[in-house]
Amino acid sequence: FSVAAFSRHAADDYGAKPVLLMPTCKKGSWQSSAQQSQKLMQAWKLSPFGEAKHGPLKEVASDGDGRRRAALYLVLMHKHLYEFLSNLPGLNLYTGEDGITMCFDPKHLFKRICTLLCSLKGILVNGVIINKTLVAQWLEKIPGHDCIHALLQPKDSQDVGCCALLRSCAIWIHLTYPRSRETPTVLSEKCLLDPFINPTISLSEEMIQLVKFAHMACALFIKHDGDFSHQLFGDIQCMIKSFISKIAHSKVLNPSLKVFLCLLGDDIPEILFGRSRMKGGHSPNHAVDELHQRFLSALRMDKIFRKYPYLERRARHLRLIRNRDVDHLSPRNWGWRPYHRVV
Question: Domain range holding 172?
Fold first, then answer.
């Protein structure tokens, strides 16, 4: 199925509201995907229950599907977002109509980076191939670490927490052995992971760390070009650019609005899909009318969890941190912090 949904960027009621359910054979073209995106954006702009009631659309997120990536580049890369971002050298200022930007899910990017690290192909950094063999040697430096095999070959390839743990181990090694040439230096920087798992840092610190990683990724891409995934590089830059643009949009609309990094990407629809699948006894097969009924049940559950958040149990594989007290981070983890407002 192809599913499209709208959601709010706010501290509450940010659950996905599905508007499109369409069977697909996965053989469609990027041109048809671009037409779907354009029609959805036009419908939001024209509908009395869209922009007139809830405000303008400012971001379109995707899980990184190849056809949809090409479609989003066509639809959302032809206007300038200039007023607040023109003094940021190197930033791609092209957007879609009304300043709409594109974004790829951060958790999918984490998984893709760790998939490369856990493969024999690896990632080339300063002439050194960082692959599973070298990562295993690094992990052996951690005292008492007995799950090296589980980290490099996880049973669940969708386990985001395992990816976060692997990068956290690389950070620990670099901090412990800072002068060793055999330790991960560039890849161990926490500037990509920390903004998504640390609710104590401010909005400015989140922005600084992500921009830092954007420059590091750009340096690797320029140095190694063909040996660095063009799709991965583009998706990372789009994700970071979307966050920067969201801050600029909020500054225009209302500087007192809060900006939540955790709402980037397609994590909200993923939660909707998980609830709808649970309602069907975890069966992946269903007709369109049955999926419609499951989505209705999932939307009712969303209202219940919004009123009684302590009843919600998030999917384990969506957690960035394996901590009993820190579930999948949501606006309620950041909402009370005043320095997550736009200044």
Answer: 108-216
State the pLDDT confidence band at 339, using cuts at 50, 70 and 90.
very low
List pLDDT tens digits, range 160-172.
Answer: 555 555 555 555 4
Is 200 exposed, middle or buried (CB count within 10 Å of its CB: 0-12, 13-18, 19+)?
A: exposed
174 plus 249 within the same structural domain: no
Instruction: State the angle between helix axes of 66-75 and 230-253 in degrees (0 to 180), rounded to the nearest 10.
Output: 40
Task: Examine the domain organization and report whether 90 and 116 are in the same domain.
Answer: no
pLDDT digits (tens, 9 = 90+) for 70-127: 888 888 887 777 667 878 888 888 888 888 888 888 888 888 887 887 788 888 777 7
**In the listed set 154, 182, 216, which residue is the last one of a domain according to the structure?**
216
Asked whether residue 91 falls in the same domain as residue 136, the answer is: no
Contact 260, 106 (CB under 8 A): no
Rg value, the chain, Cα? 20
Residues 6+ apart with CB under 8 A from 334: 199, 258, 260, 262, 340
**CA-CA distance, 131 to 99, in Å (whole number)?**
39
Rounded to whole angstroms, how far apart are CA atoms 210 and 240?
6
Half-sphere exposure (Cβ direction) of 232: Cα atoms closer than 13 Å: 19
